[in-house]
Amino acid sequence: VPTIPLSAHRSRGAAILAVGALTAGPLVGCSSAPATEPGTATVTTTTTVPATTTTVPAAIDTIDVERYDLDLVYSVADRLLAGTASLEVIVTDAAAPLTLQLRGPRATAVRVDGAQAQFRQSAGDLVITPAGTVTDGTHLAVQVDYEGTMGTPKDANGTAYGWIATPDGAQVLSQPDGAPTWYPVHDTLTDKASYDIHVSVPQGLTAVANGELTGEKDSGGRTTWSWHAAEPMTAYLATVSIGDYTLTTQTGPGGLPILNAVDRDLDAQTASDITAALELQPTILDFLVRTWGPYPFSTSGAIVDDDRLDYALETQTRPIYASYLDDSTLTHELAHQWFGDSVGIATWQDIWLNEGFATYSEWLWSAEQSWGQSVQASAEDAAARPADDPFWAVTIAAPTRAQLFDRAVYERGALTLHALRELIGDDAFWAVARAWASSNAGGTVTTAEFEGLATQESGTDLTAFFRTWIHSAGKPDLAAGH
Ligand SMILES: [Zn+2]
Question: Can you give the pLDDT at residue 324?
Fold first, then answer.
């Protein structure tokens, strides 16, 4: 199975991320999009796509993973990760080799339905030969033992991603294709799965992952933290963060449980700023629910570490933030829970849908604050760049690898939504947005599907509009809307 080219994007956090971040001091994660492109890591990858490539090859789905159960043991001092990954797999193309992605850690044993299986690992792929007969539709229990010494993988832009070893633990931000640096995975955007993640760490440290905390067991000087993420999740959104965290809880809209992990080693001023920002989290979630519809998951929260990540990432149910945190960044990453996480994208070229909605959410949030500016003013700020600014040279629905995390993808994505709203009117716009979030919850989407929904809900031929705003480079006339 081909992996997604590295380029994918990260909203990645980091790299990906930060698109927006460019302006601000610390990069804000995703919110900021990174100027960099994520992509290649130092690790080997199976596919090399030139940065100028205009298309991102789609992964070939020959299996469908329903569930991952990851049992991880991490030694902070020597950065050694030992894992057993148990996957529930449905074969969808029995003619293709059974292939997972695993880059860095080495597989040491593979079992299929309890029987030892032959395997070979090379160029980031783990190719498994089950002993028994496999046909389309066959369900397999695949178990992989693996281990590796962890470091700091880099994406194509040189941004740290994947499993990043830190002095007091680890952080995991895998956009776009960093997941194989820490577990054997079917690393495609369209194969979502549920996860159980168990992490054994030296006693005194906390391991945080996605979803709900289901257990915390001490034994032999170590603590095993267990997390259950029931709702379908794309590989790059899975995370584990290990450190000296204080866990705090809040309650969001409708009784939504919020669980935050904040590093105890932050300096007093930073800690105070972060506490103040996180206090807004229930209010921001309530705002987003009123704006986009019901929160798509059963839990929420934040992970804030003192290590020097310069971006945030919308890891599912529990975004990771750098130690610079403000309400705009929170709004951005939490909006991604609707757009990017629940409504996933089918290819990285559709990333403007994630970043456009997240950035537009920042504009909408700002407009509600006493200190903020109107959405129109935010749009005009973004559009104020002269026509020859490179910002307008990006075709946002067809970014090259190098442009995946370009701020144009973020801000022109938001501008496109604003221009659409002006063209079709508030009633149709909000109908489109809410239908987009609700009808695609838990799934994956394409740009063409968004165009189709907007056309249908508005009763308007939007061919020229989308050609101008997302399928072409060049500065549109914002006032004209199209
Ligand atoms: Zn983002």
Answer: 84
- Ligand 1 centroid – CA 128 distance (Å): 35
Q: Is the pLDDT of residue 414 over 60?
A: yes
Provide mean pLDDT across the span 242-260.
Answer: 97
How many A from CA of 408 to the centre of ligand 1? 12
- Tell me what pLDDT residue 434 has: 98
For residues 2 and 7, what is the distance between their CA atoms, to the nearest angstrom? 13
Residue 339 C-alpha to ligand 1 middle, in angstroms? 9
Tell me how far the alpha carbon of residue 32 lies from the centroid of ligand 1, in angstroms.
Answer: 6
The pLDDT tens digits of the residues spanning 142-161 come to 999 999 999 999 988 788 99
Distance 116 CA to ligand 1 centre (A): 42
Model-level pTM? Answer: 0.89
Give yes or no for a contact between 343 and 436, defined as CB atoms under 8 angstroms apart: yes
Distance, in Å, from the CA atom of 37 to the CA atom of 18, rounded to the nearest integer, reads 10
Structure tokens at 471: 């399928």
Half-sphere exposure of 79 (CA within 13 A, CB side): 14
Query: Confidence class of residue 313 from pLDDT cuts 50, 70 and 90?
Result: very high
Under 8 Å between Cβ of 245 and 208: yes
Distance 138 CA to ligand 1 centre (A): 37
Helix axes 351-368, 327-338, angle to 10 degrees: 130
Query: 3-state SS of the chain: helix, strand, coil percent to 5?
Result: 30, 30, 40
The continuous run of DSSP H or E covering 168 comes out as none
Long-range contact set of residues 95-98: C-beta below 8 Å, sequence gap at least 24: 96/1, 96/60, 96/62, 97/62, 97/127, 97/128, 97/129, 98/62, 98/63, 98/127, 98/128, 98/129, 98/130, 98/134, 98/140, 98/142
Q: Which two tokens stand for residue 331?
A: 């709004």
How many whole angstroms from 82 Cα to the centroid of ligand 1? Answer: 31
Q: What's the 17 CA to ligand 1 centre distance in angstroms?
A: 6
Give the H/E segment covering residue 358. Answer: helix 351-368
Q: How far is the centre of ligand 1, averaged over its atoms, from the C-alpha of 180 (Å)? A: 21
What's the CA-to-centroid distance between 340 and ligand 1, angstroms? Answer: 8
Ligand 1 centroid to Cα of residue 25, in Å, is: 17
What pLDDT, on the 0 to 100 scale, is given for residue 18? 30
pLDDT at 61: 81
Q: How far is the CA of 18 from the centre of ligand 1 (A)?
A: 7
Examine the pLDDT at 172 and tell me if it is beyond 50: yes
Q: Distance from the CA of 203 to the center of ligand 1, in angstroms?
A: 34
Confidence (pLDDT) at 479:
64
Rounded to whole angstroms, how far apart are CA atoms 438 and 424? Answer: 20
Q: For residues 61 and 4, what is the distance between their CA atoms, to the nearest angstrom?
A: 11
Contact present, 178 and 164 (Cβ < 8 Å)? no
